[in-house]
Amino acid sequence: MANITKKVSWSSRGDESGAAGEETPLLNGSEQSRPLRQSLDYDNIENQLFLEEERRMSFMAFRCLEISRWVICGLIGFLTGLIACFIDIAVEQLAGLKYKLIKENIVKFTEAGGLSISLLLWAALNSFCVMFGAIIVAFFEPIAAGSGIPQIKCFLNGVKIPRVVRLKTLVVKVVGVIFSVVGGLAVGKEGPMIHSGAVLAAGVSQGRSTSLKRDFKIFEYFRRDTEKRDFVSAGAAAGVSAAFGAPVGGVLFSLEEGASFWNQMLTWRIFFASMISTFTLNFFLSIYHNKPGDLSNPGLINFGRFESEAMEYNLYEIPLFIAMGAIGGGLGAFFNFLNYWLTIFRIRYVHRPCLQVMEAMLVAAVTATVAFVMIYFSTDCQPLGPDHTEEYPLQLFCADGEYNSMATTFFNTPERSVRSLFHNPTGTYNALTLGLFTLTYFFLACWTYGLAVSAGVFIPSLLIGAAWGRLCGILLASTTSTASLWTDPGKYALIGAAAQLGGIVRMTLSLTVIMVEATGNVTYGLPIMLVLMTAKIVGDYFQEGLYDLHIKLGSVPFLHWEAPATSHWLTAREVMSSPVTCLNRIEKVGTIVDTLSNTSTNHNGFPVVVQPAKLCGLILRSQLIVLLKHKVFVELARSRLTQRKLQLKDFRDAYPRFPPIQSIHVSQDERECMMDLTEFMNPTPYTVPQDTSLPRVFKLFRALGLRHLVVVDDDNRVVGLVTRKDLARYHVGKHGLEELHLAQT
Amino acid sequence: MANITKKVSWSSRGDESGAAGEETPLLNGSEQSRPLRQSLDYDNIENQLFLEEERRMSFMAFRCLEISRWVICGLIGFLTGLIACFIDIAVEQLAGLKYKLIKENIVKFTEAGGLSISLLLWAALNSFCVMFGAIIVAFFEPIAAGSGIPQIKCFLNGVKIPRVVRLKTLVVKVVGVIFSVVGGLAVGKEGPMIHSGAVLAAGVSQGRSTSLKRDFKIFEYFRRDTEKRDFVSAGAAAGVSAAFGAPVGGVLFSLEEGASFWNQMLTWRIFFASMISTFTLNFFLSIYHNKPGDLSNPGLINFGRFESEAMEYNLYEIPLFIAMGAIGGGLGAFFNFLNYWLTIFRIRYVHRPCLQVMEAMLVAAVTATVAFVMIYFSTDCQPLGPDHTEEYPLQLFCADGEYNSMATTFFNTPERSVRSLFHNPTGTYNALTLGLFTLTYFFLACWTYGLAVSAGVFIPSLLIGAAWGRLCGILLASTTSTASLWTDPGKYALIGAAAQLGGIVRMTLSLTVIMVEATGNVTYGLPIMLVLMTAKIVGDYFQEGLYDLHIKLGSVPFLHWEAPATSHWLTAREVMSSPVTCLNRIEKVGTIVDTLSNTSTNHNGFPVVVQPAKLCGLILRSQLIVLLKHKVFVELARSRLTQRKLQLKDFRDAYPRFPPIQSIHVSQDERECMMDLTEFMNPTPYTVPQDTSLPRVFKLFRALGLRHLVVVDDDNRVVGLVTRKDLARYHVGKHGLEELHLAQT
């Protein structure tokens, strides 16, 4: 098991920097023992140079920075909206083409017989699309698989996943999601929007692209982890906002997942990015739909208007809602359980790209087949009213003027199916249709999540929930005589959707707000909240949330919100890594090179001491590497007086892909030189005494976004170093506090 | 000026504890030199005893605590909702009675002549109500004056204002607000709800009431500042939620004003309290309105449904909205400017309670007179349609079947007037009516805010804004030929209301969400946000926000979100108070008593050192006082071996009103005894080196909610102490960084 958890696809290949620091080598097949990720570095260039720059800055300079931040956030929002718009239009056009083709084919063969040809056509079209989507993901950028939400959660938490915010990832993600949705998989295009927004944010805010090898020489100040992370929060929020038309939900998502220290200006900028994103999407879609300027239809997925009159709920319905929440929690846990084992199976046996592509194609073909069979054998015919909203009504074996009801759920993009389930009038579906649909779609969606395609789990979850929710509504209406009470099954579809989604992803605050915003109805706030809470409580009893499971499979040093409840008896002394490698303030180059090359000193930060072991600063691996690269040695400085002094710019240019120590050549002579670290170290690192309790250390890490905390004794002598991984190790298991075995701790 | 700012009504009388620590003696007339507030104490009982208790606690105990927290939040929400319901019904009944009486009188005298008698009646009724409201505030609980939002902001920021969360304050606040609204003042009942929720939260969470001398022996664990403050956040959120039917807005309000460290569980509990509060209010109001179970009408103020079709906005309207935002910002700044000088005038000349009551009565009479005159001379008659929504239509001199349009704005509770301005069909008001109304109401509201009555400024601001906003809409419609474009002036009323409110209070994120939730329309998110941003930027250019002005007048050590931008060159060394009084680990009782009695050692926390000056802990004034009170002396412990050991309970029972040092009698013999502080001090206080920059120190304070930070040198020797006040001193003025003169720093 410990062996298994070391391998997981989304964090498995390549490395971001060569730095060997705090690596968690998650191996994937052939590529062995290469460091794979590093924690974000909140203070990475808070060295003397940086402090001096800040001290020199005038009030106007700070104001300019602040304005730049706003401009960047506006840009992030705008671009995220544009991408969402592009995805939406592409999916709609391609899916339209596909469904039209298949529909014509089905109509042709319904009378003549030989519908198996239609099935083949359908399956082939799906497989082809999915193949394309899977190839680019599996062969070019495996990190773009899935929704990207676990990766973004990790990034915002402070764990850097290699290549997660690269331009190439974005391109693969966007193209991939279009093809997987068009390919008819049980996936949504919403999750990937969050990842896309995050990548855009990381790119725009740095003012350069390493992939394109362009440096626009702007926003150089923001080339550090703290700032970048703030912008990525904004990007993720803009993504949520574009996906669901939920700007407030987006802000809360970012805060729930990422924020540690609540900063009002930052939050407001995030909100701005979200607003602009929804607005942009809205505006361009309104032009696309030939209603330019009509801005009242936000989001990629729109749940449609829930009119208050028809959808009122009553006090006595609340227990019902809560019961549905419990069902959702249970089903969600089951979903996660299945997906967990499936993922482990995949890690073991389906780790070669071509196998991954084949699996994806198989799923696509099976999905088409199942859908076809369900539609074929369905006898649920409904009259095709004058105001029908179906885009592609399939008549099949129904009488003229009627259509096959099962086809509205399967023969459609999932977004449209959700809306139909919410809003189609009473009687559109019969109970059997919904039951069968729930059953099949549940397993299809579960199988699909984790494939090497770019795709989200939001919409499938909503769809499953809406189906069984509507089923509940219908059953309730049929069991009670006073039918008027439960007139609208759409209401139950909404609650079911919330319950199922909550049961799978276990988001709470932000999901409530997202649902409220997507329905455009504040009234449902309380029931949705209660449902999501119930779903979370019930679900957590059985199994973790889907994203958390996948994060756990990555054995990432992910810090939760609070220290485990029973960890008060642990102190920094027990938690810290010790002994810790310290450097002298003026240190021999050879020692530094050896320290950095030594794979057992797996830290990214080194306390700097003056004898005897008294702490005077902290220096980072990345800083040392830049220093070595520029050969900032005391002896050389003396001999070449005219040499350009190392500037902040040199650190910024190297950010974020610092070269590995192996690539830096240091001659034998140079090894004897000395390096003066005083100017480059962080002179005032945070410290704690040895007796500080774990919750307190934890709080420091979370609130300040630390990654290293030096532990000192009463005489200010370094006795240890606490890193994120030291903290992430502890969690509450069934038998009280347990130590997690993080890979290579 | 410095002299003036020392006196301000809402923080002027009495004292919470006798502690002389960090006091800011804001004097009011006769009561001299009594300490008045102290900062909240985030680590107040994080001493060894406390740590030991936490270490002993099992996982189940932690879970029980967590459940208690949820129960308390539910209770807070429920009670807040009940109080809101009570206020609403009381106001509606009493105001109904009043308006009916006056209307009958006016109808009687309109034909017969002698309307001056009606005027007298109106003015007398108003003055009488307001007199009652003002008397209880001015004589019994001056802290209950105003909306209470500045006080709650301070409380959440970590500054304790005496008596602000007492039961007596709550009672006065609730009764006071009923009478001031019924008294026809230009006030709202929404602001006070926030304060009420906060008081409830502080009371419920402590499981006892000092006013009622009842201790329910529950929730004893929560008797410390950190926990109390968290619950007060929830209470404030519940208040916002009940006031505006905006649970998400409530959460964001709490976060914007109070949160430092974003804690997911806490946020969720806050959200829960908010939801329950809206729901409770909703539920009981639905019973009151004879529609039991209809839960779709949340909040004390409900802006009514904004139907998407009629209210759509277009891209080209956005610049107009922004322009309105700028107007709102300007008008808001003007409002604040006037109110600032008025407040200073009041502090100087109207500080005696009877004068305050007389002023309030005067304002009430003037308000009635102005309203009457405006209605009397108005010629704006509108037909009384079959579906009119006016509760008390005044015919006056209009033709039969018509009513006086001016009366719908003045002769009504402000909440109803706002709704009329938003929703009455085009042509209900003519431009002159609205212009005159804006003008008079602006000055009336400005005069009213700051009176010794319990009242909020939200609704008057909205009303002023809605009036001029609707005026803008009407003017736009009249200037353009294509009238259809600007059909609905209600849309402009909404934007105007947002602009005006934003211009006055300068809230941003939370206000956007509150407005969105209160209108039940997500579509207006972006314009409202842009408007509020513009209003804030324009307003800030001229003058601070109303609440901030009042906080500044109180010269409170209020910490803003971030350190001033240009303060990077300041280090802990420059900021800290030095020399600092340290105590030895085993200290003579006499020394401790002298230290605490010495008014120049105005700190609430004392570093504990071992020779030579090496830091080994931090102990608080309140802890020392409890120790002295229980005579925990080394010698006594030796002689009386059976003596009960001091327990955590003793600290909790004394919380939060620790006796002043003067009240503790220590005999001359006892002065020679020794006290061992080891067991009671916080053994691992946060420390920083001397060279830490101010922004970094600031961040520690904000993120961890600190109040003392010990500054140490390289050898861990105490060199100084940074307190909140040391940080609050610095702000960015017109000439760069300035030091603020906080009273008696």
UniProtKB/TrEMBL annotation, chains A, B:
An example Gene Ontology CC term for this record: lysosomal membrane
Bias-annotated ranges (Polar residues): 1-12
Ranges for region Disordered: 1-34
Source superkingdom: Eukaryota
Protein name in UniProt: Chloride channel protein
Transmembrane segments: 70-91, 119-140, 170-188, 231-254, 266-288, 318-342, 354-377, 441-471, 492-516, 522-542
Chief location category: membrane
Membrane topology: Multi-pass membrane protein
